[in-house]
């Protein structure tokens, strides 16, 4: 574990020196404040303009889902950029054969940031949420968000050869989070076309308030992570 800890601290030093990555780690706080305080104000303004009911209120649960994924996505994105830097410098392959090993490397680079994002979300989502979710739903959404961040980071690491490609892949892989919106806009069996996306099941959990949706969410996330880890390790 000492090797894992040292590897993680080394990554933090790298992120600290990169202003873009440092800013990405603080983005969830700013976004959470914007969601919590600006969205209701905008909703009331829009209701006044159109002389009707609140327009955005039915989607407050969806906004909470996006916030629950944001911290993990930002933390793991920063970690993925560090991984690509090490892959480009041929450092990652050497770390694989040290005492750190493949498992230790992935734990230090992705596992710890995802775990930190989970704790971050569990603490802050009760303050920034717009929908009246219970503590069980908050924990489930935070867990799903942590897994979504891992998936996005692994997609970036597996599909990109360098940081420039990583930024392009980030934009494409971020589309996977849009599965959360499907239950809010599609009804009937047609929505299950998107059931291969873990974010789809997070949307189902928020929309219906049924904690059992965490099971397919965890199962699909595990399949994604297993496949992408294999892909990344073979690439190295």
Instruction: Determine the N-to-C terminus distance.
Output: 22 Å
Given as residue ranges, the uncertain stretches (5+ residues, pLDDT < 50) are: none
Task: List how many beta strands DSSP finds.
Answer: 0
Q: What's the domain count?
A: 1
Radius of gyration: 19 Å
Mean pLDDT: 85
Strand content: under 5%
Strand and helix order? HHHHHHHHHH
Shape: globular
Please tally the helical runs, counting DSSP H or I stretches of 4 or more residues.
10
Helix content: over 70%
Structural class: mainly alpha
Q: What characterizes the major β-sheet? A: none
How is the secondary structure organized here?
Layout: H1 2-17, H2 19-50, H3 60-88, H4 92-96, H5 101-128, H6 135-159, H7 163-173, H8 182-185, H9 198-208, H10 214-235
Helix pairs in contact: 1-5, 2-3, 2-5, 3-5, 3-6, 3-9, 5-6, 6-7, 6-9, 6-10, 9-10
Please supply descriptive tags for the structure shown above:
single chain; 236 residues; mainly alpha; 78% helix; 0% strand; membrane; ABC transporter permease; transmembrane; transmembrane helix
């Amino acid at each position: 574990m000492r090797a894992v800890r040292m590897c993680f601290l080394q990554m933090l030093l790298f992120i600290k020196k990169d202003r873009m990555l440092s800013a990405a780690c603080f983005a969830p706080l700013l976004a959470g404040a914007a969601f919590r305080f600006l969205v209701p104000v905008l909703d009331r303004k829009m209701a006044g303009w159109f002389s009707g009911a609140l327009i955005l209120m039915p989607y407050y649960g969806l906004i909470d889902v996006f916030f629950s994924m944001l911290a993990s996505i930002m933390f793991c994105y920063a970690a993925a950029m560090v991984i690509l830097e090490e892959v480009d410098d041929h450092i990652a392959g050497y770390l694989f054969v040290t005492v750190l090993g493949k498992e230790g490397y992935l734990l230090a680079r992705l596992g710890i940031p995802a775990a930190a994002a989970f704790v971050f979300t569990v603490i802050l989502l009760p303050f920034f949420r717009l929908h009246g979710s219970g503590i069980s739903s908050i924990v489930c959404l935070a867990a799903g968000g942590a897994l979504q961040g891992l998936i996005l980071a692994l997609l970036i690491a597996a599909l990109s050869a360098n940081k420039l490609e990583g930024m392009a892949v980030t934009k494409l892989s971020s589309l996977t989070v849009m599965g959360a919106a499907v239950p809010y806009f599609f009804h009937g069996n047609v929505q299950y076309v998107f059931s291969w996306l873990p974010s789809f099941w997070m949307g189902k959990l928020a929309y219906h308030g049924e904690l059992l949706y965490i099971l397919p969410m965890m199962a699909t996330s595990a399949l994604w992570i297993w496949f992408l880890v294999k892909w990344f390790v073979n690439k190295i």
